[in-house]
């Protein structure tokens, strides 16, 4: 077995209103950052997974994201794997 480090970025889907992002954008505008727009707030998760190879590790992490880490109805996720 090899160990892989997964870096997972989670964002709301494009058609879902990002209330946190909009709040931060409005606050930035009130602080004179008027050139900032389209602010999106997401989540970042790191974990280590043991697997026979990179493909199996990716499969495990994708399954974990679909079942628990991300909300597949509202969120998209992107995984980067590195062997450790």
Assigned CATH architecture: 2-Layer Sandwich
Weakly predicted, low-confidence segments: none
Strand content: 25-35%
**Count of individual domains:** 1
Kindly provide the name of the CATH class: Alpha Beta
Please count the helical segments: 2
Radius of gyration computed on alpha carbons: 16 Å
End-to-end distance = 11 Å
Number of beta-strand segments = 3
Strand count, sense and closure of the main sheet? Answer: 3 strands, antiparallel
Query: What name does CATH use for the topology?
Result: Mth169, Chain: A
Q: Major sheet: order of its strands?
A: 2-1-3
* Class based on secondary structure composition and strand pairing: alpha+beta
Pattern of helices and strands: EHEHE
Average pLDDT figure: 97
CATH superfamily: Phosphoribosylformylglycinamidine synthase subunit PurS
> Per the principal axes of the C-alpha atoms, what is the gross shape?
elongated
- Share of residues in helices: 25-40%
What does this structure look like?
This protein has one domain: Phosphoribosylformylglycinamidine synthase subunit PurS (Mth169, Chain: A), CATH 3.30.1280. The protein has helices at residues 19-30, 54-69, and strands at 2-12, 43-51, 75-83. It starts with a strand and ends with a strand. The longest helix is centred in the last third of the chain and has 16 residues, at 54-69. Helices cover 33% and strands 35% of the residues. The chain is of the alpha+beta class.
């Amino acid at each position: 077995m090899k160990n892989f480090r997964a870096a997972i970025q989670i964002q709301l889907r494009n058609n879902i209103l990002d209330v946190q992002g909009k709040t931060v954008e409005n606050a930035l505008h009130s602080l004179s950052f008027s050139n900032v727009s389209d602010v999106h707030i997401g989540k970042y998760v790191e974990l280590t997974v043991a697997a026979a190879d990179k493909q199996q590790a990716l499969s495990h992490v994708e399954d974990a994201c679909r079942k628990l880490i991300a909300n597949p109805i509202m969120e998209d996720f992107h995984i980067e794997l590195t062997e450790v």
